[in-house]
Design brief:
three-stranded antiparallel beta sheet; 9 helices; 3 strands; 68% helix; 6% strand
Length: 253
């Protein structure tokens, strides 16, 4: 067994000196900041330095916003910044996905535990799909990127919906967390529908700015997805993430 510190789930009075203790609220902020900074950087940098190529489509009409795929995957340094951010945030996100299962065991009635297990699988698959679509870009491996994107959207929507249903059936409701989850889920799925409409209209009618409306809808989908996962801030308030030499745990402050 290696000596270095690593992740593991410990739910016992493991009496060792912590290597690191950080409030869960700060950990949530860090996880949000990484992809958010990368997302904003990629969009702004692409508009400033690759405007014509990232806004160009087969219709050859004027647009002002790039799609996310073109902004994060087709050019350097945007591609490297996005990939680094996604890789770094994926490690704690995998851990939090498992922690949520333990959270559901505590908060949910026994008859609803099966939903927590499905939510775990959806969350893990969503995170894996995000990694795949980030590293297999649309410009180089379109088929893989497309399938990973579809998986990401599908898994994230079902995960959001199931999380809202589960939290509404908890033994003790966190009204603030549930309220924000519902708002973000409804905004997210509404923008997916709008984005699909704008994309189909762009392809069929080739109107100016229509692809920009599709891109803007994409931005809201990504941002609401980030924000939805950040609602862990409400679910794990007054708790600390503690890293030991041989594992880690979520503990009461």
């Amino acid at each position: 067994m290696p000596v270095e510190a690593r992740y593991a789930l410990l739910y016992s009075d493991y009496e060792v000196v912590p290597c690191l203790r950080i409030p869960f609220e700060k950990l949530t902020f860090i996880i949000l900041t990484l992809p958010l900074f990368a997302f904003v950087f990629c969009i702004i940098y692409s508009i400033l330095f690759n405007f014509e190529s990232v806004t160009s489509t087969h219709c050859h009409v004027f647009n002002i916003l790039p799609s996310i795929s073109s902004a994060i995957g087709n050019y350097s340094p945007q591609r490297e910044v996005w990939q680094a951010a996604i890789l770094l945030q994926s490690i704690p996100r995998f851990y939090i996905a498992v922690i949520y299962l333990q959270f559901h065991y505590v908060m949910a009635y026994p008859r609803d535990i099966w939903m927590g297990k499905i939510a775990l699988l959806l969350n893990l698959t969503e995170n894996i799909s995000l990694i795949v679509l980030s590293f297999w870009t649309s410009s180089k491996q379109y088929a893989v990127h497309e399938k990973a994107f579809i998986a990401f959207i599908t898994m994230s929507e079902f995960y959001m919906m199931l999380s809202c249903i589960m939290q509404s059936r908890f033994r003790k409701h966190n009204k603030k967390s549930l309220r924000w989850k519902l708002r973000l889920f409804l905004t997210n799925i509404s923008c997916i529908i709008l984005g699909t409409y704008f994309y189909m209209r762009h392809n069929s009618l080739c109107e100016p700015y229509m692809y920009s409306l599709f891109a803007f809808a994409e931005y809201i989908v990504v941002l609401t997805n980030m924000a939805f996962h950040t609602t862990a801030y409400f679910d794990f308030q007054k708790k600390d993430f503690v890293l030991y030499r041989y594992g880690a745990a979520i503990t009461e402050r």
